[in-house]
Structures are given as structure tokens and as C-alpha cells.
Amino acid sequence: DQQVKQNSPSLSVQEGRISILNCDYTNSMFDYFLWYKKYPAEGPTFLISISSIKDKNEDGRFTVFLNKSAKHLSLHIVPSQPGDSAVYFCAANPQGGSEKLVFGKGTKLTVNP
Amino acid sequence: NAGVMQNPRHLVRRRGQEARLRCSPMKGHSHVYWYRQLPEEGLKFMVYLQKENIIDESGMPKERFSAEFPKEGPSILRIQQVVRGDSAAYFCASSPLTGVRASTTEAFFGQGTRLTVV
Asked: Of the four listed, A6, B23, B73, B109, which is most buried by Cβ atoms within 10 Å?
């Protein structure tokens, strides 16, 4: 059972345009969400996070939106740059201080010059 | 990712052999997490350790897998009698703090060890 779902395995956008990566979750006990970026042959790098008490968090070109009623979050990258080409993982953290992260399968973003 | 060192980067083992994966956390970090990424999958939590202590091993397979983080030296993930299904990328992360919000956002991942069982 996949508790965190990223239904688009890949996404291709033009440089300068907006990239929107989507993530759905099923476990209502999740109350903290994170996005990681991963280049080939490297480990994941933390990008941005959001607590369930918020519906938006912004950091430079990256904004994460959370819709708790729909159990959906999205990552917006504006403007997209070729260096943003990577695999993006959505991850969730359950309530209660668990140290475990539950990851989605990832979306491969390609930004074309 | 600088600072969390995993070795080897690539490891090939025949079925039935043992695999030892090492992780040296960043300087000053006393919390280590191991994750496994199977092909076409996301990362899956395996185990969380502090020095000389296993805090949460709920993601570890019940047999053949073990982990340790001794007082001195790196954390070791050990897989005995490897099978083809163990082929995966194994990632280690470390953090300086406990508490989920601090650890999940302050955790730094290593580059991973890619295990191939032939």
C-alpha cells in the first residue's frame, strides 16, 4: 500500500516556465511534508517542507502548497531552470515524533533550454 | 550531501555472500538513518540509530539484516546471505538533533551504496 503517491513518473517543461509537481497521500496521520531533489548517483537533498497547519510555504523559486482536505500537495518551481532537472521526491512524516519518512516514487523533471 | 560518507559506492556480491555497507555521519552528528531504494521505487525507511543504540528498526527485514552504530567508527548495515532481491541503492542520512522536525529537515544524505547481487 502506497501511502504517498506521485502519479507522474516524469515531467518536461521549458526553461523559464512553471514546473508543477504533484503528490497525494492517504494517511491522515501525516502532518509534515517534505520535498527532496535527487541527481543521478547522489543522495537526496532537502528542498522545502510544510507543516499541516499551513497551506503554503515559499522559499525563493520554490513554493509548496498543501490541501489537507484533498490530501494533496504540490511543488511549484518558477521560473524553471535546466539545473532543476532531477528526480523530485515527496515525503511525509507522521505525527507523534516518528523519525521515519515515507517517500513517494518520485517524478523526474526535465527542464529544456 | 557533503560530509556523510558511504562506502563502498558500488558493491557486487554473489548470492549467499555477506554485504557490509558503511556510513560515516557528518562531524558532530550522532543520529543515523538507513533507507533502501529498490529500482523504480521511492526510498523506504529501514532503521534509525544513535551511538550504541537502535532506536527504531521497524523497517528492517526480520532476517539477514542488521545494523549497528558503535561508539567509535562508522555505522554498519550488514546483510547476510544476500539474495537477488536485495539489489538496491542503500542510503544513509545523519542529523545532529533528535525530534522529528529537526531531524527530518536537518538530515543530510550520503551518496548511497549501490548493491548488486549476481
From this structure: B23
Would the CA dihedral through A74, B4, B50, B20 be positive or negative?
positive
> How far is B79 from B65, CA to CA, in rounded Å?
5
Query: In this predicted model, what pLDDT tens digit does every residue of B33-85 receive, in sequence order?
Result: 999 999 888 899 999 999 899 989 999 999 999 999 999 999 999 999 999 99
What tens digit of pLDDT does each residue of B83-93 get? 999 999 999 99
B44 to A104: CB separation less than 8 angstroms, yes or no = no
Q: Do B42 and A104 touch (CB under 8 A)?
A: yes
Cα of first residue to Cα of last residue in chain A, in angstroms, is: 38
- A98 touching B (Cβ < 8 Å): yes
Q: Counting one residue from A and one from B, how many pairs have CB atoms under 8 Å apart? A: 69
- Domains defined along chain A, listed by start: 4-112 (2.60.40.10)
Q: Is B105 left (phi over 0), alpha (psi -120 to 50) or beta?
A: alpha
Which residues in chain B are closer than 8 Å to A89, comparing Cβ atoms?
Answer: 42-43
